[in-house]
Design a protein that fits this description.
Layout lengths: L7 H6 L20 H10 L2 H6 L1 H15 L4 E2 L6 H8 L1 E4 L3 E4 L6 H5 L11 H14 L5 E6 L1 H10 L7 H9 L1 H25 L3 E6 L7 H20 L9 E5 L6 H5 L5 E3 L6 H8 L4 E6 L8 H15 L9 E5 L9 H14 L7
Parallel strand pairs: 1-4, 4-5, 5-6, 6-7, 7-8, 8-9
Antiparallel strand pairs: 2-3
Helix pairs in contact: 2-4, 4-7, 8-9, 8-10, 9-10, 10-11, 14-15
The protein binds coproporphyrinogen III.
Coproporphyrinogen III binds next to strand 3 and strand 4.
């Protein structure tokens, strides 16, 4: 069956006038969906799921088929790069991601090399190719990476962290070693994103989940400077120069101006940011993506509808002097979310947002 082509998300991300607000949701494929849990069980574990392109494709398609979202996001993880660098990623049930071989010493940092995107991460590129074929133009496909700072944090801590004692210790005590680490990760990210676009990814998102843990000066030096290198590399490459790039620093609301200065196309906003204020600050330079509190998705359908309207109203009318808005949550949807809430969210945004777009 041929489905109608929906390129609303890409047109919005390019700052074009659209008829309504597009919506996709971070972590839209995942444990809140029973059909995801079934495929994960079939795969055996999360990493096998990521490394089997046909299964990665199947779970990428699940939320598109079920809810009619306006974009698909590649099913994978940000930690594929450090895994390919030899750190051995395992996903521990109830704990989250853990590396068997974290990187802690200068000698270990100096041994790291840039993985070959097609050789060492070929399963990701294969997944992109299989998904593009399966999508057949229905909606655009988003590729992604973790930011260098966020990836380096996991690589040094060895797992998630609350205080970031080890990576911040490295940054304060051995800034040169921290920079060496961040540079090899940045070079890896650039190669990886270029390969994703060559394989078929139509927009890119950089998840800087832990940049918000830094002071402003350290954010500029140890996170933003490396995201700047990524944007520069993509915008000067023949293959990637027209592919929109969205930067998302969780907890980065006070840094929106400097993030927009990178030359990226869009900014992801977490729910702590006032959308109207963000629009006034940078809305004429970048598209804004976000930012409903994900916990709303764990409550009732009327709360979902009401809070979705509040986000649409906070951005307000699309006047033409602003770049526009893409609806999303302010962080990933949680495993406790009700699938019916996702349908209520998508229906609300798709049926109600037209009034904020002039005809
Ligand atoms: O958004 C999507 O639907 C695409 C797939 C995707 C996943 N992870 C799948 C996943 C994306 C874009 C990510 C990004 C990611 N991964 C980030 C950045 C975004 C963010 O949430 O801040 C981070 C920090 C990670 C690292 C990671 N991977 C963590 C902390 C965890 C465990 C916590 C959790 O949510 O389970 C993972 C595992 C993971 N990545 C799962 C999924 C669907 C759960 C795996 C499972 O148990 O089945």
């Amino acid at each position: 069956m041929t489905q109608m082509k929906n390129d609303l998300y890409l047109r919005a991300l390019k700052g074009e006038k659209v008829e309504r607000t597009p919506i996709w949701v971070m972590r839209q494929a995942g444990r809140y969906l029973p059909e995801y849990r079934a495929v994960r069980k079939q795969a055996g574990d999360f990493l096998t799921l990521c490394k089997t392109p046909e299964l990665a494709c199947e779970v990428t398609m699940q939320p598109i088929d079920r809810f009619g979202l306006d974009a698909a996001i590649l099913f994978s993880d940000i930690l594929t790069i450090p895994d390919a660098m030899g750190l051995e990623l395992v996903l521990e049930e109830g704990i989250g991601p853990v590396f068997n071989k974290p990187v802690r010493t200068v000698a270990e940092i100096n041994k790291l090399g840039v993985p070959d995107a097609e050789q060492d991460l070929g399963y990701v590129m294969d997944a992109v190719r299989v998904i593009r074929k399966e999508l057949d133009g229905r909606v655009p496909l988003i590729g992604f990476t973790g930011s260098p700072w966020t990836l380096a944090s996991y690589m040094v801590e060895g797992s998630g962290s609350k205080e970031f004692r080890r990576i911040k210790g490295l940054m304060f005590e051995s800034p040169a070693a921290a920079r060496t680490l961040l540079q090899v990760v940045t070079d890896s990210v650039i190669t990886y994103l270029k390969a994703q676009v060559a394989a078929g990814a139509q927009s890119l998102m950089v998840f800087d989940t832990w940049g918000g843990m830094l002071s402003t000066a350290n954010y500029q030096t140890f996170s933003l400077a490396y995201m700047q290198q990524i944007v520069d590399a993509l915008k000067t490459d023949e293959v990637t120069k027209d592919t929109p790039v969205v930067l998302f620093t969780k907890g980065g609301g006070q840094w929106l101006e400097m993030m927009a200065d990178t030359g990226c196309d869009g900014l992801g906003l977490d729910w702590t940011v006032d959308l109207a204020n963000a629009k006034a600050r940078v809305g004429d330079r970048v598209v804004l993506q976000g930012n409903m509190d994900p916990v709303v998705m764990n409550t009732g359908e009327s709360q979902v509808r009401d809070n979705a309207m509040l986000v649409l109203e906070a951005y307000g009318n699309h006047s033409g002097s602003d770049k526009g808005h893409i609806f999303n949550l302010g962080h990933g949807i949680q495993p406790f979310a009700q699938p019916d809430n996702m349908q209520a969210l998508v229906t609300t945004v798709q049926s109600q947002s037209g009034q904020f777009h002039s005809k």
